[in-house]
Amino acid sequence: MTLLIVADIHGCTSCLEVITDRIAKVDIVLIAGDITEFGNAPEANEILKIFEKHQAVIAAVPGNCDRSGARILLEQRGISADGRVLKLEKALVAGAGGGNWRTGLTPYERKDEELSEAIESAVHQAERAIRDGELGKPLILLSHTPPFGTKADVRAGRHVGSPALRSMLDSLRPLLWVSGHIHEARSISRSGNTLIINPGPLREGKFASAQINGNCDRWQVEAELSSG
Protein backbone atom coordinates (compact mmCIF):
# COMPACT_ATOMS: atom_id res chain seq x y z
CA MET A 1 0.00 0.00 0.00
CA THR A 2 1.37 3.41 -0.97
CA LEU A 3 0.62 6.67 0.84
CA LEU A 4 1.05 10.32 -0.10
CA ILE A 5 1.33 12.43 3.05
CA VAL A 6 0.76 16.19 3.12
CA ALA A 7 0.01 18.86 5.70
CA ASP A 8 -0.21 22.63 6.08
CA ILE A 9 -1.36 23.51 2.58
CA HIS A 10 -2.73 26.83 3.86
CA GLY A 11 -4.91 27.40 0.81
CA CYS A 12 -2.07 27.35 -1.72
CA THR A 13 -3.60 25.66 -4.76
CA SER A 14 -0.49 26.27 -6.89
CA CYS A 15 1.61 24.39 -4.33
CA LEU A 16 -0.22 21.20 -5.24
CA GLU A 17 1.54 21.19 -8.61
CA VAL A 18 4.55 19.47 -7.03
CA ILE A 19 2.45 16.40 -6.17
CA THR A 20 -0.11 16.19 -9.00
CA ASP A 21 1.82 13.46 -10.81
CA ARG A 22 1.81 11.34 -7.64
CA ILE A 23 -1.82 11.64 -6.53
CA ALA A 24 -3.32 9.10 -8.91
CA LYS A 25 -0.49 6.62 -8.29
CA VAL A 26 -1.02 6.10 -4.54
CA ASP A 27 -3.60 4.13 -2.61
CA ILE A 28 -4.35 6.79 0.02
CA VAL A 29 -3.69 10.51 0.44
CA LEU A 30 -3.34 11.60 4.09
CA ILE A 31 -3.91 15.30 4.80
CA ALA A 32 -2.83 16.38 8.28
CA GLY A 33 -4.67 19.68 8.59
CA ASP A 34 -4.45 23.37 7.75
CA ILE A 35 -5.98 22.79 4.37
CA THR A 36 -6.93 26.48 4.26
CA GLU A 37 -5.52 29.75 5.53
CA PHE A 38 -8.38 30.71 7.87
CA GLY A 39 -10.77 29.55 5.17
CA ASN A 40 -14.26 28.07 5.09
CA ALA A 41 -15.93 25.60 2.73
CA PRO A 42 -15.21 27.43 -0.57
CA GLU A 43 -11.49 27.63 0.15
CA ALA A 44 -11.33 23.99 1.27
CA ASN A 45 -13.27 22.91 -1.81
CA GLU A 46 -10.69 24.55 -4.09
CA ILE A 47 -8.01 22.35 -2.55
CA LEU A 48 -10.03 19.14 -2.36
CA LYS A 49 -11.25 19.24 -5.95
CA ILE A 50 -7.64 19.06 -7.16
CA PHE A 51 -7.19 15.78 -5.29
CA GLU A 52 -10.61 14.53 -6.35
CA LYS A 53 -9.84 15.29 -9.99
CA HIS A 54 -7.28 12.49 -9.76
CA GLN A 55 -9.79 10.19 -7.99
CA ALA A 56 -7.75 10.19 -4.80
CA VAL A 57 -8.82 8.19 -1.76
CA ILE A 58 -8.48 10.84 0.95
CA ALA A 59 -8.32 10.78 4.73
CA ALA A 60 -8.01 14.18 6.36
CA VAL A 61 -8.24 16.10 9.60
CA PRO A 62 -8.72 19.86 9.88
CA GLY A 63 -6.04 22.07 11.35
CA ASN A 64 -6.18 25.06 13.66
CA CYS A 65 -6.46 27.40 10.66
CA ASP A 66 -9.50 25.64 9.18
CA ARG A 67 -12.79 27.33 10.06
CA SER A 68 -16.02 25.50 10.84
CA GLY A 69 -17.25 25.59 7.23
CA ALA A 70 -14.11 23.81 6.07
CA ARG A 71 -14.45 21.24 8.83
CA ILE A 72 -18.08 20.58 7.93
CA LEU A 73 -17.14 20.16 4.27
CA LEU A 74 -14.65 17.42 5.18
CA GLU A 75 -17.42 15.62 7.08
CA GLN A 76 -19.88 16.02 4.21
CA ARG A 77 -17.32 14.60 1.79
CA GLY A 78 -16.89 11.60 4.10
CA ILE A 79 -13.14 12.13 4.38
CA SER A 80 -12.84 13.56 7.89
CA ALA A 81 -11.08 11.38 10.47
CA ASP A 82 -11.59 13.98 13.20
CA GLY A 83 -12.86 12.00 16.18
CA ARG A 84 -13.84 9.06 14.01
CA VAL A 85 -12.41 6.20 12.00
CA LEU A 86 -12.48 6.02 8.22
CA LYS A 87 -12.88 2.45 7.02
CA LEU A 88 -10.94 2.58 3.77
CA GLU A 89 -10.39 -0.39 1.50
CA LYS A 90 -6.79 -0.92 2.62
CA ALA A 91 -6.54 0.81 6.02
CA LEU A 92 -8.37 2.16 9.04
CA VAL A 93 -7.55 5.84 9.64
CA ALA A 94 -8.44 7.36 13.02
CA GLY A 95 -7.69 10.92 13.95
CA ALA A 96 -8.00 14.20 15.80
CA GLY A 97 -8.12 17.60 14.16
CA GLY A 98 -7.24 21.04 15.47
CA GLY A 99 -4.24 22.62 17.09
CA ASN A 100 -3.35 22.35 20.74
CA TRP A 101 -4.64 25.33 22.73
CA ARG A 102 -2.32 28.34 22.71
CA THR A 103 -3.93 31.75 22.36
CA GLY A 104 -7.42 30.98 21.06
CA LEU A 105 -6.74 33.30 18.12
CA THR A 106 -6.94 30.59 15.47
CA PRO A 107 -10.29 28.99 14.59
CA TYR A 108 -9.76 25.43 15.81
CA GLU A 109 -7.69 25.17 18.97
CA ARG A 110 -8.43 22.39 21.44
CA LYS A 111 -7.46 21.66 25.00
CA ASP A 112 -5.31 18.62 25.55
CA GLU A 113 -8.15 16.53 26.94
CA GLU A 114 -10.26 17.36 23.88
CA LEU A 115 -7.54 16.05 21.57
CA SER A 116 -7.27 12.90 23.66
CA GLU A 117 -11.05 12.39 23.65
CA ALA A 118 -11.15 12.74 19.88
CA ILE A 119 -8.46 10.09 19.39
CA GLU A 120 -10.09 7.80 21.95
CA SER A 121 -13.44 8.08 20.19
CA ALA A 122 -11.85 7.34 16.83
CA VAL A 123 -9.91 4.37 18.18
CA HIS A 124 -13.00 2.90 19.86
CA GLN A 125 -14.77 3.10 16.51
CA ALA A 126 -11.78 1.39 14.88
CA GLU A 127 -11.90 -1.39 17.46
CA ARG A 128 -15.59 -1.92 16.74
CA ALA A 129 -14.86 -2.00 13.02
CA ILE A 130 -12.24 -4.70 13.57
CA ARG A 131 -14.71 -6.74 15.65
CA ASP A 132 -17.26 -6.32 12.88
CA GLY A 133 -14.94 -7.80 10.30
CA GLU A 134 -12.54 -5.05 9.19
CA LEU A 135 -9.60 -7.41 9.74
CA GLY A 136 -6.28 -7.40 7.97
CA LYS A 137 -6.01 -3.61 7.79
CA PRO A 138 -3.35 -1.48 9.47
CA LEU A 139 -4.46 1.31 11.81
CA ILE A 140 -3.09 4.75 10.97
CA LEU A 141 -3.35 7.68 13.40
CA LEU A 142 -3.76 11.10 11.79
CA SER A 143 -3.64 14.39 13.72
CA HIS A 144 -2.80 17.99 13.04
CA THR A 145 -1.11 18.44 16.41
CA PRO A 146 1.91 16.17 16.92
CA PRO A 147 2.46 14.03 20.01
CA PHE A 148 4.70 15.64 22.62
CA GLY A 149 8.37 14.72 22.89
CA THR A 150 8.92 13.53 19.33
CA LYS A 151 10.93 14.98 16.47
CA ALA A 152 7.62 16.03 14.93
CA ASP A 153 6.88 18.67 17.59
CA VAL A 154 10.15 20.61 18.03
CA ARG A 155 9.94 24.40 17.70
CA ALA A 156 12.92 26.60 18.59
CA GLY A 157 14.51 23.68 20.40
CA ARG A 158 11.46 22.97 22.57
CA HIS A 159 8.83 20.24 22.38
CA VAL A 160 5.43 21.89 21.88
CA GLY A 161 3.15 18.98 20.99
CA SER A 162 0.32 17.41 22.92
CA PRO A 163 1.13 15.40 26.09
CA ALA A 164 -2.27 13.69 25.82
CA LEU A 165 -1.53 12.53 22.28
CA ARG A 166 1.87 11.34 23.45
CA SER A 167 0.12 9.24 26.08
CA MET A 168 -2.12 7.80 23.36
CA LEU A 169 0.94 7.08 21.22
CA ASP A 170 2.61 5.18 24.03
CA SER A 171 -0.48 3.16 24.89
CA LEU A 172 -1.76 2.44 21.37
CA ARG A 173 1.58 1.94 19.60
CA PRO A 174 0.09 2.26 16.11
CA LEU A 175 2.01 1.34 13.00
CA LEU A 176 2.02 4.92 11.73
CA TRP A 177 1.27 8.36 13.21
CA VAL A 178 1.06 11.33 10.85
CA SER A 179 0.87 14.96 12.01
CA GLY A 180 1.70 18.48 10.84
CA HIS A 181 1.27 21.91 12.45
CA ILE A 182 4.91 22.53 13.44
CA HIS A 183 6.36 23.59 10.11
CA GLU A 184 9.99 23.48 11.16
CA ALA A 185 9.68 20.00 12.69
CA ARG A 186 9.64 18.14 9.40
CA SER A 187 10.85 14.67 10.22
CA ILE A 188 10.57 10.90 10.14
CA SER A 189 11.30 9.16 13.42
CA ARG A 190 10.31 6.16 15.49
CA SER A 191 8.86 5.67 18.94
CA GLY A 192 9.05 1.97 19.61
CA ASN A 193 7.43 0.28 16.62
CA THR A 194 5.54 3.41 15.54
CA LEU A 195 6.77 5.45 12.59
CA ILE A 196 6.04 9.16 13.16
CA ILE A 197 5.93 11.52 10.18
CA ASN A 198 5.65 15.29 9.96
CA PRO A 199 5.87 15.88 6.19
CA GLY A 200 6.49 19.61 6.50
CA PRO A 201 4.29 22.29 4.94
CA LEU A 202 3.10 21.61 1.41
CA ARG A 203 2.84 25.39 1.14
CA GLU A 204 6.64 25.26 0.93
CA GLY A 205 6.65 22.31 -1.48
CA LYS A 206 7.33 19.69 1.20
CA PHE A 207 5.58 16.34 1.53
CA ALA A 208 6.27 12.68 2.29
CA SER A 209 5.47 9.26 0.94
CA ALA A 210 5.21 5.90 2.68
CA GLN A 211 4.92 2.25 1.82
CA ILE A 212 3.17 -0.32 4.01
CA ASN A 213 3.86 -3.99 3.40
CA GLY A 214 3.12 -7.24 5.18
CA ASN A 215 -0.06 -8.40 6.89
CA CYS A 216 -1.86 -8.17 10.20
CA ASP A 217 0.69 -10.51 11.79
CA ARG A 218 3.55 -8.16 10.94
CA TRP A 219 3.07 -4.86 9.15
CA GLN A 220 6.14 -2.96 8.00
CA VAL A 221 6.25 0.72 7.02
CA GLU A 222 8.93 2.80 5.37
CA ALA A 223 8.81 6.47 4.41
CA GLU A 224 10.77 9.28 2.82
CA LEU A 225 10.55 13.07 2.78
CA SER A 226 10.37 14.89 -0.55
CA SER A 227 10.40 18.44 -1.84
CA GLY A 228 9.11 19.98 -5.03
What topology does this entry show?
Elements: E1 2-6, H1 20-23, E2 28-32, H2 41-53, E3 58-61, H3 68-77, E4 85-87, E5 92-96, E6 99-100, E7 109-110, H4 112-131, E8 139-143, E9 154-155, E10 158-159, H5 163-172, E11 176-178, E12 187-191, E13 194-198, E14 206-215, E15 218-227
Parallel strand pairs: 1-2, 2-3, 5-8, 6-7, 8-11, 11-13
Antiparallel strand pairs: 1-14, 4-5, 9-10, 12-13, 14-15
Helix pairs in contact: 2-3, 4-5
Summarize the structure.
With 228 residues, the chain is α/β, with parallel strands linked by helices. It has five helices and 15 strands.
Walkthrough of the structure:
The protein is of the alpha/beta class and 228 residues long. The protein has a single domain (2-227), classed as Metallo-dependent phosphatases (Purple Acid Phosphatase, chain A, domain 2, 4-Layer Sandwich). It contains five helices and 15 strands. The chain has helices at 20-23, 41-53, 68-77, 112-131, 163-172; strands at 2-6, 28-32, 58-61, 85-87, 92-96, 99-100, 109-110, 139-143, 154-155, 158-159, 176-178, 187-191, 194-198, 206-215, 218-227. The strands form four sheets. The chain has a six-stranded mixed β-sheet with strand order 4-5-8-11-13-12, covered by helices on one side. Strands 3-2-1-14-15 form a five-stranded mixed β-sheet, with no helix packed on it. The chain has a two-stranded parallel sheet with strand order 6-7. A hairpin with a 2-residue loop joins strand 12 and strand 13 (194-198). Helix 2 packs parallel to helix 3 and helix 4 (112-131) packs parallel to helix 5. The chain is globular and about 40 Å long. The model has no long low-confidence stretch (mean pLDDT 95).
